[in-house]
Amino acid sequence: MTIERFYPIGTPGQPWGHTEREQWRAQTRIQRDYQQQVVSKINALTDRFDVEQYGALSYDPEHYPLLCIKTKHWDETKPIVLITGGVHGYETSGVHGALLFLETKAQRYETHFNFVVAPCVSPWGYEIINRWNPLALDPNRSFYANSPAEESRHLMALVASIQAPILAHFDLHETTDSDEQEFRPALAARDGINFEPGTIPDGFYTVGDSEKPVADFQTAIINAVRQVTHIAPADDNQQIIGSDVVQEGVINYPMKMLGLCGGITDCQYGTTTEVYPDSPKVTNDECNRAQVAAITGGLDYILDHQ
């Protein structure tokens, strides 16, 4: 069923122009500090990792440097693991889960892997607690040539600068109640279409690449995460967020075709994690630890199958 719902910006049925996008940006406000909450944690890792700036957002280059963390003692003989968080800046555990992995677990795996970690791809979105960038663009639908989203362009340039194949990519995300309450209605208004309500799954799930799903790898991640938080069940249509469930807690998307961050490499093992932070069953700490469990579960699987 299609439900007509008026979003307070724009005219129903008409895509936004420049004026509407400016109106949308004008009603956003800073709610937390990227420098204090993220950059300070990154800088605290410099004794154990190399920290590099791979760009800066033009909105405020000094306040929004784009930082990545790399294995300090890089070994060309080891495979590379890419970890990305905060592509949607409001998805908090993606950012802090990536940092928690570096703080608590990475050393255990550095014998086997080189790591490249971009923990907060969209720092403006982190501060505003929003899915979009200031141009009302979704960075996670913008990973393609000549991308209009500078967050996406900078990350693609970072990946292109890595002079070796990437074996695995963990892209850390959340699915939140605000997706249904704010972000999907805003998207419908922006694009001039009717909003069709959906349901938010209660629990963790992953999104694999439909072109190379690597089912057993996803299974290992799900089994590791279930030790920390609950796994999202399928709905009555045996789907999660409108996609068929291919195994417990797993759906697949065509990553490259959709311009998703999960498609920016040709890695053998790739997953997009989706934590559900709005469940009454979990805490913020458990959400962060679920992201860490997803990474370690996937890495343990790779070590067992290389």
TrEMBL record:
Residues forming the Peptidase M14 domain are 30-306
**TM annotation in the entry:** none
InterPro entries for this protein: Peptidase_M14
- Write out the similarity annotation: Belongs to the peptidase M14 family.
Name of this chain's protein? M14 family metallocarboxypeptidase
The organism's taxonomic lineage, starting at the top: Bacteria, Pseudomonadati, Pseudomonadota, Gammaproteobacteria, Vibrionales
